[in-house]
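Sample intake sheet
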Amino acid sequence: MAQGRQGVFIPDPRDIWARKTRWRVADYIETARRVIETEIVGLDALARSLGHEFSRAVEMMLAVKGRVIVSGMGKSGHVGRKIAATLASTGTPAQFVHPAEASHGDLGMVTQDDLALVLSNSGETPELADLIAHTRRFRIPLIGVAARPASTLMRQADLGLVLPAAPEACGNGIVPTTSTTMTLALGDALAVALMEHRKFTPEHFRTFHPGGKLGVLLAKVGDLMHLDMPLVAQDAPMSEALLVISQKGFGVTGVTDDSGALVGIITDGDLRRHMQGLLDLDATAVMTPGPRTISRDSLAEAALAQMQERKITCLFAVEDGRPCGILHIHDCLRAGLV
């Protein structure tokens, strides 16, 4: 505060700005909390409303020979694109078809082997009319998702999934917020129910997610391991073992028996422990027997965890006891497994 010439205190503009800023921040946070809490109420109502219609929807989607065609206009369309992507990535072939484009030729994408999952909060979206008529003409199964059971979409659908009555989070009921959140959650619920029924594993998931962090986390040992392995026989002299260690560059060599099975490993620690008369010994005398191994089908993340836990830098991958590759901790780091 500043004091005027006649003793009147004049507010410092910086103090006013600070108070307004604090008020705005608190107000913004309160708004955000109100929105989230309103949508939570909607999601809770959706969870409690699920019944036999949901189970029928899952069974209908499981019976589809073709794809699940997801469609919706406006915000429902944006949600529909995400639902289609989630279905496709979790083992249910799916595709989003824009209803307006469908009326101009894309109806050819919707075949009698498919099922249509059509989203519309009101159930009266005019752009959906041609798509709905197409499904009725060719007897294509139609599942409708809307908030009004008596709407055109729900009356025409073979099965309707009704969104429960819940206020939109905008406060005036005109901005799709709670309704789109419920629709998205319903799509996720369908996708996960289908995924669990199909016993969709992380290995299946990786097939559809080879790139990005998900692809890295789901990479297998066989994807990263080296096939040119450092190996010597049990009776190999240490001069040969040292040469193999040097040439291959892994800092270790595996030791195999007459059948080709991995029976030991020679590391730098083994070399230090046998420095005295090292070149007079053979591989069996120096090796550590029963080395840690891993399957080529194991996740590389599991291999990295084992190496970090045991404080080792290499793991041999084996099949029926025979080495089929070697994985170095640097391979995991280069792949982004950290």
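Comment: Residues 318 and 324 are 5 Å apart (CA to CA). Residues 13-49 form the longest helix (37 residues).
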